[in-house]
Write a structure and sequence with these properties.
heterodimer, A: about 425 residues, alpha+beta, four-stranded antiparallel sheet, 13 helices, 12 strands, about 15% strand, globular, B: about 475 residues, five-stranded antiparallel sheet, 16 strands
């Protein structure tokens, strides 16, 4: 069956003087996120990514103070509430060791209720490919590896044949491998109910957009005037990142193919930025769900999952993603490919490099933007990734290999399919 | 660019002194700051500037972060240099990025690692022949004061323009706007700010560089910050220099190829897939089947149209990943893709070391006293992170480069124990080389700052 992914977000307040012991617990468990004794995520076949991190206490420019938070994030197959049940059922005692450091924690008996109460909705979530489960990702990787190994062993004789014969030989190899019986069927596709639901939502929003368009047009000059006033009066503080933090962040990067990115900041004060931020993230979420839902976020093909979460009455925002390759590469992708998109979202945040008309400037200021990120990035002491050896491009290619395994292909399509191997 | 500015840039930025056949790299340590500064002052007149076309010898001087500190540069100024430069090449993270683990671990390095005294100064000395080089070196070393020599690394330059594996090297070099004297504007012309600090780079911006308060430059030696901060620019006309001492297992390379094929012609064919160019330098993407001598210097080519899938030049080939031209996302084959590539260019200034393996013993066991050979890889750039480290990590060493799976650079990349593959696309079945051995080992390295001549004078006058 076709299952969509959910973004689980649980935010709790860290107890007084509990930050250091909690950090220790997370770091210790984070040494082995798949098999640690607290929450062994390797035993959850429906978790793509998961992380714990501490959002430190802070004071904003208006003098408001915010307490330190423990954030738990997971990208899972299926509904979020079912996952929280599953999590508490399988790892309740371990979670207890973590959440006992949090304020208002009622004890082991009240754990489930506590986590349910602390679950919040994400403002926007991006999924590389909607509906592709962990099981499917792993199976298709297995299929890819099996076919490659088959070709390695048979390449000399197959080379003198033709594409059709090679494909037939591969099909035969898959059919004779009991571990690959699932590959004889196509992966689950969205059912009518789901497709219809998505179309109805799209249509409703489209209709609302058309109906509101004259008003949007009328309001645009005023909005732009206020925006420009803000943009010319915002004070960006281009701070140098702390060298110790740079080294700490680097210490957690590039152990495998994928990396976690976590950053947090304040929204600029006043209703205007909060409103703009909310609308923009609503739009981001909408586009991620209806347009950028298959392996490509406006030219960036290296992000598996990403999300934006508001907290503290939309005065704070954090962004968390799971991406392929180095941080430098990730930042350059942002700057070179989707600077305008980042600007729209993040220019509502304090200290973001200055923008013009919400889309121009900002991230295109390469080094200032990189410094902004480094000064807002958070260490992720616990990070689990279910398929660390695969890039999003690999996963997409594996899916296409499976999709082309059966069914009619003409000569050219057969050739193209074989070149995926 | 005015002559004043050009004369302020060290010559190594402008040229590799190909006409000066002999070269040596001397690593020094500062023992006493005050006398070392006096020594540096006496050296100023000997440092070769960019406009010079020396026929006898050339000298350039660079410093590590520790070296600048040892000369007396204040910590708050040092902190303004790039983080890559101040943190150095051997952090735990960079070991992962560069594959400097196992036999390449900094602990095993000949220099630059934690087990040997850290270098402070790099002198690059070039001369028209070896006797002249020895003479110039004797003059320079006789005048050392406040510094002592750690290592002297002699280059070997009778390889006929090829590196030790037998391939022409250094063909694709960017042309630097404003420094090159070429009248035409070749397509790979890169803005000077990519290679020299204090100028506009490919983003249309000025790269971060160290600035000092006017009061800290009482002699008014330094130029003013072009961005108008009112401070004096210690970085302007200077740049960063990356030095990697890389040993090449030449016999290992050819013996590996011999394990795949008995036919020397086919071995060279395979090697050319791995490199992406034939021994003469001819790009495989232009001449896939044979080494066409007419194309040996060819560099005006792209990949996307005609070779998008790597059927001629494999996607994993060395030259295709070190300089992907128009082949990467978001829009392969367009000016946008090329624009991205331009932000990751390296200006290479390295030279080979060690005698070549005699061609008649290429496949034989190495003699017990076989000398080490390889490449003193040197590249110059204004942004170590976006240029050298990016190319090394995200492209060359990345097993996932483009849409590959487990394929680091087949020639120079780090090949982990889990296995490194190399796919040669072809119809109907690709050829896949598995478990490539390691051919290149890191023997040393460091990040240096190659100051302007004004900055050199400033450093010699620090108090």
């Amino acid at each position: 069956v076709f299952i969509t992914q959910s973004a689980v977000t649980i935010i709790t307040t860290v107890g007084a003087a509990q930050e250091a012991p909690l950090q220790q617990v997370l770091e210790a468990a984070g040494q082995d996120p798949a098999n640690n004794s607290l929450v062994p995520f390797g035993q959850f076949p429906n978790v793509h990514f998961a992380r714990f991190f501490i959002l430190p206490a802070a004071t904003d420019r208006d003098g408001n103070t915010y307490s330190s938070r423990l954030v738990f994030l997971a990208d899972v197959d299926g509904p979020a509430d079912a996952f929280v049940l599953q999590l508490v059922g399988a790892a309740g005692d371990g979670l207890h060791s973590i959440y006992q450091h949090c304020a208002g924690y009622p004890g082991r008996a009240g754990l489930l209720d506590y986590l349910q109460r602390s679950s919040i909705k994400t403002a926007a979530a991006y999924v590389n490919t909607v509906g592709r489960s962990v099981v499917q990702v792993r199976q298709e990787a297995q299929l890819h590896d099996a076919i490659e190994a088959f070709l390695d062993s048979r390449a000399p004789e197959l080379r003198s044949t033709n594409p059709r014969a090679v494909r037939a030989a591969i099909q035969e190899c898959v059919e004779h491998d009991p571990a690959l019986v699932w590959a004889l069927e196509r992966p689950p596709t969205p059912d009518v109910h789901y497709v219809l639901g998505e179309k109805v939502q799209l249509a409703l929003v489209g209709a609302a957009g058309i109906a509101l368009f004259p008003y949007i047009l009328l309001a645009a000059p005023l909005y732009l005037a206020i925006l420009r006033w803000h943009e010319t009066h915002d004070v960006a503080n281009d701070a140098m990142p702390d060298d110790a933090l740079i080294q700490k962040l680097a210490a957690q990067e590039d152990h495998g193919v994928q990396n976690p990115f976590t950053s947090a900041g304040f929204l600029k004060s006043g209703l205007f930025r909060r409103l703009t931020g909310s609308v923009v993230l609503w739009g981001t979420n909408f586009l991620a769900r209806h347009v950028f839902n298959h392996a490509d976020l406006i030219g960036v093909k290296t992000i598996h999952f990403a999300r934006w979460v508001f907290l503290d009455e939309q005065r704070r925002l954090f962004f968390a993603s799971n991406y392929d390759g180095s941080l430098e590469n990730y930042m350059d992708d942002f700057i070179d490919k989707i600077a305008w998109g980042l600007n729209i979202v993040f220019s509502n945040g304090v200290d973001y490099p200055s923008t013009r008309f919400l889309v121009l400037g900002g991230a295109t200021n390469e080094q200032v933007f990189k410094r902004f990120n480094l000064t807002h990035q958070l260490v992720t002491p616990f990070w689990y990734a279910a398929y660390q050896g695969l890039t999003a491009l690999n996963i997409d290619n594996n899916a296409r290999i499976r999709a082309g395994l059966y069914g009619a292909l003409d000569e050219a399509a057969t050739c193209a399919w074989l070149r995926r191997l | 660019m005015t002559d004043d500015e050009l004369n302020d840039i060290q010559g190594l930025v402008a040229r590799g002194y190909a006409n000066l056949n002999s070269a040596t790299y001397v690593l020094l340590r500062v023992d006493a700051a005050e006398t070392a500064r006096v020594w540096l002052g006496t050296l100023l007149d000997r440092v070769t500037p960019a406009p010079a076309h020396p026929q006898d010898s050339a000298l350039n001087v660079a410093f590590t972060a520790a070296g600048l500190s040892a000369l007396g540069l204040a910590d708050d100024v040092l902190a303004q240099f790039s983080n890559q430069f101040t943190a150095g090449m051997t952090t735990a993270h960079r070991r992962r990025m560069f594959g400097d683990v196992g036999s390449s671990a900094p602990e095993t390095w000949q220099w630059g690692g934690p087990t040997t005294p850290g270098p402070h100064v790099l002198m690059t000395l070039f001369a028209r022949d070896t006797p002249t080089l020895n003479q110039r070196y004797a003059e320079l070393s006789g005048a050392f004061q406040g510094v002592s020599e750690l290592t002297k690394l002699d280059a070997y330059t009778d390889l006929d323009g090829k590196e030790h594996f037998g391939f022409a090297d250094g063909i694709s070099q960017p042309t630097i706007e404003g420094i090159s004297s070429r009248k035409d504007v070749p397509p790979n012309t890169i803005r000077i700010g990519e290679f020299v600090l204090g100028y506009v780079n490919e983003y249309g911006l000025y790269t971060d560089r160290p600035l000092v308060e006017r009061g800290a430059d009482p002699g008014g030696v330094l130029a003013a910050d072009v961005e108008g901060s009112g401070r004096a620019d210690l970085g302007r006309n200077g740049t960063y220099l990356v030095f990697r001492h890389l040993a090449q297992d030449v016999r290992g390379f050819w013996r590996y190829l011999a394990s795949l094929s008995d036919d020397p012609v086919h071995q060279t064919w395979l090697a050319a897939r791995m490199v992406g160019r034939w021994p003469s330098g001819t790009p495989v993407t232009l001449s896939p089947d044979f080494d066409d001598p007419l194309l040996s210097g060819a560099n005006d080519f792209t990949y996307q149209y005609g070779d998008a899938l790597g059927l001629q030049c494999p996607v994993g080939a060395h030259v295709r990943r070190a300089h992907p031209r128009d082949s990467l996302d978001p829009a392969p084959g367009t000016a946008r893709s090329v624009e991205l590539d331009r932000r990751h260019r390296l200006l290479r200034r390295g030279r080979e070391y060690g005698p070549p393996v005699p061609t008649d013993s290429l496949y034989a066991d190495p003699p017990p006293d076989d000398p080490e050979r390889g490449l003193f890889f040197i590249c110059i750039g204004a942004n170590i992170g976006r240029q050298f480290e990016f190319v090394q990590h995200s492209w060359v060493n990345n097993p996932k480069f483009d849409d590959l799976y487990d394929e680091p650079d087949p020639v120079v990349g780090y090949h982990p124990a889990e296995g490194a593959n190399f796919t040669i696309p072809s119809d109907p079945v690709r050829l896949r080389l598995r478990n490539l051995p390691q051919f290149v080992t890191t023997r040393g390295g460091a990040y240096f700052f190659l100051p302007s001549l004004r900055a050199l004078r400033y450093l010699s006058r620090l108090t």
